[in-house]
Amino acid sequence: MTSLTRPFSHPLSRRGFLRGSAALGGAAALSSLPLGARAETPLTVGFIYVGPRDDYGYNQAHAIGAAALKEIPGVTVVEEENVPETIDVQKSMESMINLDGATLLFPTSFGYFDPHILTLAPKYPEVRFEHCGGLWSADKHPTNAGSYFGYIGMGQYLNGVAAGHVTQTKKIGFVAAKPIPQVLLNINSFLLGARSVDPTIMCQVIFTGEWSLAVKEAEATNALADAGCDVITCHVDSPKVVIETAAGRGSFVCGYHADQSALAPEKYLTGAEWNWGKVYTDMVNTTLAGETIPNFVRGGLAEGFVTMSPLGPAVPEAGRSQFEAVKAEIMTGGFSVIKGPLKDNAGNVVATEGQAFLETDPSLESMGYLVEGVIGATS
Amino acid sequence: MALAESLSGGGARSTLLRAGLARRAEAVVIPLLALLAGLAVFGLFLLTQGKSPVDFFALVWKGAYGSAFSWQNTLSRAAPLLLSALCVALPARLGLVVIGGEGAIVLGGVAAGALAGPLAGAPAIVGLPLLAAAAMVVGGVWIGASGALRHLRGVNETIASLLLSYIAIALMNQLVEGPLRDPASLNKPSTAPLADQLRVGNMPGMDVHWGLAFGIAACVLSWVLIERTTWGFAARIAGGNLRAAEVQGLPVGRLIVGFTALGGAFAGLAGFFEVTAIHGSANASLAAGYGYTGILIAFLARQNTLAIIPVAILLAGFDASSGLVQRRMQLPDATVQVLQGLVFMAILMSETLYGRLRLFAAGKGA
Questions:
Q1: Are A87 and B189 inside 8 Å of each other by CB?
Q2: Which of A113, A236, A336, B214 lies in the 20 to 30 Å Cα band around B205?
Q3: What is the pTM of this model?
Q4: Tell me, which fold does domain B52-330 have in CATH?
């Protein structure tokens, strides 16, 4: 029970789309109604999470998004947490389809796509499989599957701007799960944001090797604090351990995935958050209207896919104004984080003078380098 | 009584027979009672949470065994558990507690994934046995090493196998993200996808892959090995008293290494099926915890390799129904873990009942 109620008693529940404190009670009431009584076109939507849905991170961000759907009349939401990327997720999806009548599924973990969604989508052509992460391509994948994701690297860039104004040691830290493109873009964006404030800032990165491994995350955070990093952020499934450990060591922190300000109110500068509630509401409304969701959906700050946590008390006035100015610039479009002249930390040129990669550039989704100023290696 | 004696031709033989039957009955009835006790305690736990135990067990039944879909769901989940439980139960016959089967599963899977590249052009009849053999050899060496360390160096096999499994997972991550990585696997580092003919399909008429049949066969063969061969007899003697077995001239070292390696080979085979039947490549999803669930199953089965089959199906059924319980009763995922924990405790505690219940004392009393 606790696992279900905790996300909603969290300060996040104050956010607009969660209005009903009755998110839970409402869903229970809905599901006890006979099918026809709910709306003209009842829709059952299934959500599957790889971890606990109150992890202050990746899964919680999706669970908050799912909660937003519970207010739409005629929509029933069914959820499962802690579903591993094995035959388990295939059976969970099939169970939602066969036993709950779900016709729109959001298996939210990256690893659910290949082979699991790709195995089931052809078998259930009337069901829509929406996957978070970004692999769908028209020539390879079933048309009843689709992918959606957001340009959250921009959020890490803004985290870096805030960090750049706060760091005294000119050294910031990043606890990362695995050296894969999505993570590398976030690390590079964090440092480049900070360097837009002071080009001498360095960022030390430590890879834990796992998406969710609290002990290593704590060790990595302590090692970064020991190395003099006074602002720390992360890209792991649950930032809770990093945020609490870093704040406990006196470092400032920037959040990721969801709002972690409640964990360290004084030390929290800002955070790059997913706003899946907007994305899911749009997709469900599209489905209810009888239309098809596009197979490839992307958006950033401007589209409302990504939001920033409110700035914390530690960010100085100069930092606040630059943060707001850069954010406004990103919102208007055409902003590039990766732009020349830029080298990676091994000295290879990644962008020449005048070359700039927009956030929408697909080549950023196969990034394999750490930029100059990042202390660390991808292998 | 008199009739039975005259029919069997002697009191001694009849008493032996009855004692044997009583022992068998005891071995079935006590775990069943413990299972029911565990379920009852869990029912009380649900009541304290304001949930109906009746609803819960009805959902578990529906989600695990209530329909053809549910049965296939359960059996799909049971397949790797049968093999990983053998990795615990076989060494247990020698009195060894091996808990590192996860490492053998993971490395067995990596071996299959790695060898699939060079074998991409091979027909299934050649390729699949080679992949399976590679997975079994790697798994066997990994767990056999724990046995060898135990025999040659006196290193505790429980700790050694557990630590080796951490090394195995780190090794898998290193290989899959490094030398074996398919450059096209951007955000989910994996080995190259298997060629189509190297994928293991489902058994005829059901949505369950062949790993289930091989798992059941492995459990039966293990039972034959232990109960019906001199090797198994020697292992049981050594498990009863290692020193005495040595004095008798039994090859204790070879038994220890052989049984641990065989257990590891079965776990490696589980990794082979995960890669060829489910994932289609080797990646970090191989470390799904089957090795650890296998420990639970082997202990619940009291290390009897035949009993592993129903116990694995029982636990896989709990697992299969967990999603439905989450969705229908708004209970967290951990609920089913609480249930498994209570059943585990109840069955462990029931160990103290053996030989104490009068009902089964008939053989001795007669």
A1: no
A2: A113
A3: 0.87
A4: ABC transporter involved in vitamin B12 uptake, BtuC (1.10.3470)
